[in-house]
C-alpha cells in the first residue's frame, strides 16, 4: 500500500512508513498477544505462516462459497478460513482468536492513518480510497465499513484507473484543448490486470460559463486473477517440486506450512530479480529438515511456467477498446502503470500487439495514489485546487424488476434499466410507477452480467442488490385523490454516488391538483400574493405561455424512466435543478402545465383568430384553471440482497475488539518506552561518573549513592524486572533522577555560565556605548536635540555601574568555590541582571525613536499679498456663517476657547491681531 497525504502547508506527497520506505506490505501478523504490520509481519509470517495475513482485498464483501475465496484457499492452504455465523463472510481463525475480513482491513487502514499523521503532524480524519474498477456493491460497502472501523470518513472510493488518469491529466493540463484526446491506461498489479480508455477534453459548463478539463472513462476491460501474485505462486510451486526431486528429505515440502512460506518469499524475490536478469539462483537456508535449497532459475523457465498467463495479457486491452468503440489508431498513447508491467515479457507482448512504443512516463507504483490525493484535496474543506472533472463509468448495469398486471389479468415481469453499461456517474435516476394502486414491491439487480463477465458471474456474488417494499400506497391514494386531484404515479428516486455505491433516495406519490382562481384567492395568503407579484415583475406571467404537454410513453408509461445525468459537483447541481423541474415546479411552471391541454388545439389556429379569441376571453373574464403539483412520501423498506454490510451490533462488537487491540498496543509501547528510558539512564549515569568533567561536580557521597543505585537497578532489570509493567519502570527512573539530577544541574551551570557571562559583557559594552551617545542629546550639551534629561542619563549610568560591580563580585566569590559545592552564581541570576539593564536601555532607545525636533513659529501671512488673498477667499467659503452672524470681516482662524470666554459678546475681531496675539502667547506654539 502507498499512503498519500495533503495537509495545510504540506504539498501532496507520499507518507513514509517506520522504515522510511514509500510503500508497505499489506500484511498483519499476531503472535503471543503482539500485533505487527508490514515487513515485520512478513518476517514473522515465515516462521508462523498461519498467524500472518496478507493479500486480503480480494476477500472483501464475499461469502465463503465465492470462487475468489476458493482460489485464496488454494494459494494459501495453511489458513483456517471459516464462515461468519450471521453474514457468511470470511473469518480467519488463529487458535482461539477470530478476525473478520473487515477487522483486518480496518487495522491496515489504521496503520496507514498513523503514517499519514506522523508525516503531517496533524490528526487525519478523512480519506479517499483506491479500489479496483470491478468492485461491486458488496465490496464497496464492505470497504467503507472497514474505514469506519478505522475512524476514517471516506470522501470517495475512486477506481484505480480513474485515479491514474487524473494524475496523468493534472500534470499535462496545458496539452488539453477542446478536441478530445484518447489514452489507454494499462495496469498489471499483484492481484489483477485492467485496461481503461479515457478521453481528455476542455468542456464549458453551461451553468457557470467556466471551462474545465474533463477526463471521462469510455471503456474498461479487466482480468481479476491475472497478476504478479499468480506468477509468484506458480514460481513457488515450481521451486517446491524441484526441491522434492532432489530427495534431500522424505517429507513433502508442500505439507509443511513454514517451508511453503519460505518458498513463497523466495519466489517473490526471484521474480523481481528475473525482471532485470536472465538467470538467478534461488537460495534458502534450512528449508525443510535443516536441508538447504539452491537452484539456478532462468528467465525462460519462468516464462514457460506462466505461458498461459501471457496469452491473457492483451485481452483486457482489446476489451476496453471494444467497449469504447474506438480503434487503436486514434489512441494517442498506451500508458503503463502497476508494478508487474515491469516484467519484460509483458512489455514485449503489449508492444507487439499495439505496434507502437509503450509510454512509461508514469510512476508505476505511485501514480494512482497521487491522483487520489489530488481528488481528496478537491473534496476536503480547506483546500483549493484547480478544477479537474472526472467522469467514471458503470461496469455492471443496474436494473429495476417489478410485476405488472396486464389487461387479461395475467402478471408479467417488467425490467427497466436504471444505470446502463458505461454510463457516467455520479448520477440520479427516477422510475415512475403509474399503474400501481396498492402496496407492491420491486427488486434492484445487476443486468446483463453474462455479457459483461462472460461466465464469471459468481465472483460478483448475488445478482440481486435490494428488495424494496412500498406500503400505504392505497391509503395515501384514497386520502389524496379527489375530484380536482389526479394521481400521476409513484416516483422512486435512485442515486449512484461518486463512490459507485447505489442507494434508494426516496419514494413519493405525485399528485396534480386543479385550482380555480377563486380557490386560489381563498388559499393564497398576503405574503404569497406579494411573492407572486414580485416574481411576475421579473419573469413575466407564465400563464400567457402555456407549455406543451409531453406525450405519454409507450405502453401506458407503466415504468417511465427519467434520466438525470450528473458528474462531479457541477453534475450534482444540474441534477438537482432537473429534479426540481420534474417534481417541485414553481407556480408559474405548474400553471403552464395546467394550460398545456388548452394550448394544444390553438397550435393550428391563425394569429388573427387567436387575437379575436383572446379579446373575447378578456371580455368574458374566463380564467384558466391552475395546476399545482403535490407530493406525498410513501413509506419504503429496503432489504439488501447481497452481503449484508457490517453494521449495528456486529459493527459495535468489531469496534470493541479493535479498541482492545489498540489498548494492548499502547500499553506495550508505553512499557517499551519506559524500559528503554530506564536502561539508557542507568548506562548514561555510569558512563558520566567515569568522566572527570561530571565526577568533579559531585561529592564522594553522591558518587557512591548514584553508583550503588545504578547497580541495584541493573541487577533488578536482568533478574526480576524483565517482566515489570510501565509504572514500575517509570517510578524507578524518577527515583534515580532524583539522586543524579543535582550533579547534572551543577555540571550544566558550570558549562553554561561562561556563555552567559560573555553575553552580559557584550550587553554592558553596548550599554556604555549608548550612554556616551546619549550624553550628547541633553539640553545642557545640545539645546537643539534635548532628547534625554539629566536624571535619565544618571539612572542609566548608575544601572551600568551597579551591574559591573555585581558581576565582578559574584564571579570572584564563585571562583572561590569548588565545582561540587552548591552554585552561587547561576545562569538565571545572570539573565535576570541582563533583563534589568536591558529595560533601562530600551526605555531610552524608544524615547529617541519617538522624539521629533521642534519647528520654529512661522510669521503670519500679509493680507495684501496675492496668496493671502486667496487664502482669505478660501476661508470665506469655508466659514460663511461667521461673516453672516457678526457682519464684520471674515475670521481667518478661530480663537482659543479661553480667549472667547473672556471677550464681550458682539465684539469685532481683527484677524491680523488675532494671529499676532496667538503667535506671541507661547514660543513653543506652532501654527501648522
From TrEMBL:
Subcellular location: Endoplasmic reticulum lumen
Domain of life, per lineage: Eukaryota
GO cellular component, one term: endoplasmic reticulum lumen
One GO molecular-function entry: ATP binding
Keywords: ATP-binding, Chaperone, Endoplasmic reticulum, Nucleotide-binding, Signal
Keyword ATP-binding (UniProt): yes
Residue span of region Disordered: 516-618, 853-928
PANTHER family found in the cross-reference section: HSC70CB, ISOFORM G-RELATED, HYPOXIA UP-REGULATED PROTEIN 1
Protein name, entry field: Hypoxia up-regulated protein 1
Organism: Anopheles melas
Amino acid at each position: 500500500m502507498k499512503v498519500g497525504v495533503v495537509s495545510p502547508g504540506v504539498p501532496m506527497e507520499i507518507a513514509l512508513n517506520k522504515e522510511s520506505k514509500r510503500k508497505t506490505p499489506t500484511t498483519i501478523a499476531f503472535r503471543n498477544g503482539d500485533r505487527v504490520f508490514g515487513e515485520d509481519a512478513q518476517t514473522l509470517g515465515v516462521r508462523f505462516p498461519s498467524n500472518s495475513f496478507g493479500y486480503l482485498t480480494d476477500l472483501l464483501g464475499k461469502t465463503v462459497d465465492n470462487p475468489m475465496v476458493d482460489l485464496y484457499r488454494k494459494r494459501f492452504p495453511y489458513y483456517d478460513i471459516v464462515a461468519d455465523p450471521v453474514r457468511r463472510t470470511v473469518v480467519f481463525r488463529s487458535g482461539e482468536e477470530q478476525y473478520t475480513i473487515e477487522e483486518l482491513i480496518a487495522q491496515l487502514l489504521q496503520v496507514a492513518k498513523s503514517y499519514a499523521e506522523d508525516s503531517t503532524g496533524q490528526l487525519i480524519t478523512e480519506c479517499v480510497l483506491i479500489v479496483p474498477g470491478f468492485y461491486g456493491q458488496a465490496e464497496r460497502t464492505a470497504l467503507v465499513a472497514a474505514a469506519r472501523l478505522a475512524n476514517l470518513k471516506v470522501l470517495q472510493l475512486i477506481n484505480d484507473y480513474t485515479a491514474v488518469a487524473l494524475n496523468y491529466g493534472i500534470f499535462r493540463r496545458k496539452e488539453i484543448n477542446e478536441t478530445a484526446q484518447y489514452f489507454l491506461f494499462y495496469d498489471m498489479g499483484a492481484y489483477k490486470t485492467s485496461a481503461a480508455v479515457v478521453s481528455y477534453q476542455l468542456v464549458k459548463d453551461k451553468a457557470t460559463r467556466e471551462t474545465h478539463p474533463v477526463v471521462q472513462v469510455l471503456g474498461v476491460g479487466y482480468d481479476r486473477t491475472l497478476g504478479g501474485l499468480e506468477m509468484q505462486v506458480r514460481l513457488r510451486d515450481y521451486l517446491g517440486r524441484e526441491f522434492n526431486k532432489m530427495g534431500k528429505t522424505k517429507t513433502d515440502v508442500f505439507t509443511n506450512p513454514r517451508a511453503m512460506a519460505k518458498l513463497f518469499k523466495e519466489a517473490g524475490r526471484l521474480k523481481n530479480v528475473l525482471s532485470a536478469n536472465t538467470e538467478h539462483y534461488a537460495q534458502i537456508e534450512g528449508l525443510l529438515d535443516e536441508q538447504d535449497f539452491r537452484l539456478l532459475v532462468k528467465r525462460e523457465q519462468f516464462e514457460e511456467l506462466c505461458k498461459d498467463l501471457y496469452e491473457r495479457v492483451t485481452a483486457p486491452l482489446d476489451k476496453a477498446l471494444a467497449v469504447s468503440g474506438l480503434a487503436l489508431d486514434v489512441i494517442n498513447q498506451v500508458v503503463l502503470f502497476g508494478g508487474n508491467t515491469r516484467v519484460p515479457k509483458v512489455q514485449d507482448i503489449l508492444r507487439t500487439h499495439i505496434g507502437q512504443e509503450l509510454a512509461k512516463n508514469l510512476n508505476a507504483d505511485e501514480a494512482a495514489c497521487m491522483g487520489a490525493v489530488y481528488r481528496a484535496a478537491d473534496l476536503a474543506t480547506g483546500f483549493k485546487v484547480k478544477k479537474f472533472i472526472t467522469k467514471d463509468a458503470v461496469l455492471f448495469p443496474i436494473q429495476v424488476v417489478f410485476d405488472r398486471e396486464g389487461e387479461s389479468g395475467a402478471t408479467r415481469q417488467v425490467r427497466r434499466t436504471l444505470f446502463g453499461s458505461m454510463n457516467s456517474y455520479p448520477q440520479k435516476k427516477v422510475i415512475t410507477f403509474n399503474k400501481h394502486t396498492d402496496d407492491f414491491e420491486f427488486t434492484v439487480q445487476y443486468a446483463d452480467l453474462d455479457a459483461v463477465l462472460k461466465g464469471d458471474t459468481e465472483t460478483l456474488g448475488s445478482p440481486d442488490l435490494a428488495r424494496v417494499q412500498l406500503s400505504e400506497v392505497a391509503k395515501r391514494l384514497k386520502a389524496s385523490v379527489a375530484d380536482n386531484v389526479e394521481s400521476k404515479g409513484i416516483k422512486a428516486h435512485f442515486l449512484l454516488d461518486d463512490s459507485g455505491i447505489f442507494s434508494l433516495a426516496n419514494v413519493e406519490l405525485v399528485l396534480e391538483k386543479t385550482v380555480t382562481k377563486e380557490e386560489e384567492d381563498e388559499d393564497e395568503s398576503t405574503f404569497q400574493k406579494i411573492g407572486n407579484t414580485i416574481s411576475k415583475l421579473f419573469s413575466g406571467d407564465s400563464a400567457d405561455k402555456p407549455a406543451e404537454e409531453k406525450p405519454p410513453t409507450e405502453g401506458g408509461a407503466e415504468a417511465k424512466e427519467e434520466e438525470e445525468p450528473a458528474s462531479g459537483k457541477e453534475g450534482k447541481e444540474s441534477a438537482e435543478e432537473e429534479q426540481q423541474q420534474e417534481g417541485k415546479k414553481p407556480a408559474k411552471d405548474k400553471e403552464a402545465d395546467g394550460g398545456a391541454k388548452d394550448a394544444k388545439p390553438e397550435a393550428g389556429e391563425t394569429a388573427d383568430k387567436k387575437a379575436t379569441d383572446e379579446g373575447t376571453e378578456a371580455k368574458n373574464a374566463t380564467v384558466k384553471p391552475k395546476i399545482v403539483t403535490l407530493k406525498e412520501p410513501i413509506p419504503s423498506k429496503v432489504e439488501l440482497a447481497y452481503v449484508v454490510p457490517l453494521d449495528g451490533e456486529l459493527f459495535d462488537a468489531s469496534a470493541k475488539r479493535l479498541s482492545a487491540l489498540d489498548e494492548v498496543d499502547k500499553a506495550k509501547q508505553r512499557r517499551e518506552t519506559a524500559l528503554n528510558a530506564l536502561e539508557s539512564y542507568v548506562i548514561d549515569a555510569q558512563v558520566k561518573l567515569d568522566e572527570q568533567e561530571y565526577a568533579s561536580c559531585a561529592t564522594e557521597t553522591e558518587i557512591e549513592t548514584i553508583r550503588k543505585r545504578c547497580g541495584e537497578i541493573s541487577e533488578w532489570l536482568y533478574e526480576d524486572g524483565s517482566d515489570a509493567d510501565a509504572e514500575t519502570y517509570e517510578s524507578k527512573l524518577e527515583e534515580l533522577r532524583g539522586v543524579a539530577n543535582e550533579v547534572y544541574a551543577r555540571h550544566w551551570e558550570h558549562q553554561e555560565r561562561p556563555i552567559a557571562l560573555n553575553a552580559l559583557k557584550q550587553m554592558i559594552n553596548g550599554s556604555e556605548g549608548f550612554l556616551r551617545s546619549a550624553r550628547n542629546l541633553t539640553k545642557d550639551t545640545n539645546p537643539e536635540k534635548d532628547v534625554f534629561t539629566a536624571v535619565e542619563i544618571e539612572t542609566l549610568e548608575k544601572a551600568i555601574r551597579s551591574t559591573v560591580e555585581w558581576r565582578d563580585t559574584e564571579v570572584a566569590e564563585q571562583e572561590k568555590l569548588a565545582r561540587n559545592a552548591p552554585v552561587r552564581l547561576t545562569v538565571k541570576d545572570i539573565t535576570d541582571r541582563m533583563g534589568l539593564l536591558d529595560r533601562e536601555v530600551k526605555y531610552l532607545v524608544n524615547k529617541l525613536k519617538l522624539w521629533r525636533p521642534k519647528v520654529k513659529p512661522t510669521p503670519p501671512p500679509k493680507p495684501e499679498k496675492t496668496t493671502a488673498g486667496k487664502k482669505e477667499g478660501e476661508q470665506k467659503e469655508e466659514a460663511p456663517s461667521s461673516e453672516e452672524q457678526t457682519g464684520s470681516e471674515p475670521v481667518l482662524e478661530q480663537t482659543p476657547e479661553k480667549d472667547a470666554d473672556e471677550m464681550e459678546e458682539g465684539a469685532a475681531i481683527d484677524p491680523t491681531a488675532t494671529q499676532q496675539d496667538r503667535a506671541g502667547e507661547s514660543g513653543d506654539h506652532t501654527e501648522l
